[in-house]
Amino acid sequence: MAVSGPLALEMAHITKTFPAVRALDDVSFACLRGEVHALCGENGAGKSTLIKILGGAYHPDGGKILLDGRPVAFSHPLAARNAGVSIIHQELSLLPYRTVAENIFLGIEPTRYGMLDRGRMRADSQRLLIRLGASIAPDADVGDLSIAQQQVVEIAKALAIDARILVMDEPTAALERTEAARLLDLVKRLSGEGVTIIYVSHRMPEIQAIADRVTVLKDGRTVMTAPIAEASTAKLVRAMVGRDLADFYPPPAAKPPGAPALTIRGGANGRLAGVDLFVRRGEIVGVAGLEGSGKSELGRAIAGDEPFERGTMEIAGKAGVPRRPREAVEAGIGRLSEDRKREGLLMQQSLRDNAALIQRAFAPSLGPPSAEPMTVGATDDRLRRLDVRAASFEQEARQLSGGNQQKVIVSRWLARDPEVLVFAEPTRGVDVAAKAAIYKIMRDLADRGRAILMISSDLPEIVGVSDRIVVMREGHIAGELPGGAGEEEIMAIAVAHDEPAEAATQ
């Protein structure tokens, strides 16, 4: 579509082919100066390839790139960086054992008389951080910062090279709601200063809130570019996956839930206090809450990773508090970690090895390797049932999209068939089609009588999937709502403050 105003970036008729795969087919993409332009599409749509071409990691087979109207050709990421293009990947590229200042000026360190000028580096870092509204100390080690603070450091790195084009790839995927809101405010501020932002995200509410325009890729082609006012969430979803948003959330349970499969009374540890919770067979209970509310810690406590130190717990009618993850698995609990790459998968192992991991860990030491459900056939069957898409089940897990990686972890638990499944941030960093598939898997498991506890920072997900919703605040369950409750009701409980003791007694 035609645009008015000076173009900061134009990528015209870009093509890129890999062996047996045409990743980009005549893709055109343009950004105005100071614009926030969202880039959407399913995993495999071509977004990453397009961004890597812009960043100099790939060379296009055809087409041209213009910055401020001038043709450019980047042979290396450093050339793109020198031209003012900065890319903040979902996997941050910071050095954890170096300071904030050292990371910000990595490769462009200021010198004085041929020596590193640390004083200037700290002062300039402080100036950039103040510009971003951050109170991060330049001398702090990056490894000691939160993910949200590390995102700010990455943005400061971009400002240090005077970046005119800033690409942000799923910047809020690992952030809590309040952290994400602060980052979106920062994006708006940078846009107001004239920085062009390419915002890559699967989160529709964020795109609607932050973008000026949006472009959708599908199967390596541009299928839509429009002002955000003309691109409703339903329209974007149809462009990305070819079906309506209403199909995303599965219908509620067809029959009432059964007896409790998980019951916690007075559960407490260093981060949780007085947790009372039950999850019945056949239902999905959503757990919502702000950053630091205790919802993540609840999942780890149930799974024996950071166990309850006080209180009682029953799993399928049997009392006992798991003190280690292995005890939780033996008792009938399965957990999908909120960080699948660090805690859930062996990234350089095959899909088949990952899918069989739990069964192998609990197999008798003298048992036959051909015992079901550990056979290759049984493992592959579970992967196929979950529609895991890969060139081969011998493919390494790191080569899959986020949605397929998550399905591999689910297949692992299908072999164990636990009574209770804890899904922590089940759709973090996956595309909209994969989200729908994961929601259906959860509902199918519940319909088979499994108890599902879904811990999520995505409120539309909580509202759309849960049969019941519990809201955590300050390490305890602060309230409960029926399935389908509004986001406002959830947030009202999440942010409320306890009444003063004297008021409560009047």
Detailed description of the structure:
With 506 residues, the protein is of the alpha/beta class. It has 2 domains: 7-247, P-loop containing nucleotide triphosphate hydrolases (Rossmann fold), CATH 3.40.50; 260-505, P-loop containing nucleotide triphosphate hydrolases (Rossmann fold). 34% of the residues lie in helices and 25% in strands. The protein has 19 helices and 22 strands. Strands 6-9-10-3-11-12 form a 6-stranded mixed sheet, sandwiched between helices. Strands 18-19-20-15-21-22 form a 6-stranded mixed sheet, sandwiched between helices. A 4-stranded antiparallel sheet has the order 2-1-4-5, with helices on one face. Strand 4 and strand 5 (70-72) form a beta hairpin. Helix 4 packs across helix 5 (147-160). The protein is globular.
In short:
The chain has 506 residues and is an alpha/beta fold. 34% of the residues lie in helices and 25% in strands. The protein is globular and about 70 Å long.
Which value, in Å, is the CA radius of gyration? 24 Å
Name given to the CATH homologous superfamily of the largest domain: P-loop containing nucleotide triphosphate hydrolases
The CATH topology assignment of the largest domain is Rossmann fold
Number of domains: 2
Quickly count the helices: 19
Give the overall shape, derived from the CA principal axes: globular
What order do the strands of the largest sheet run in, or round the barrel if closed?
A: 6-9-10-3-11-12
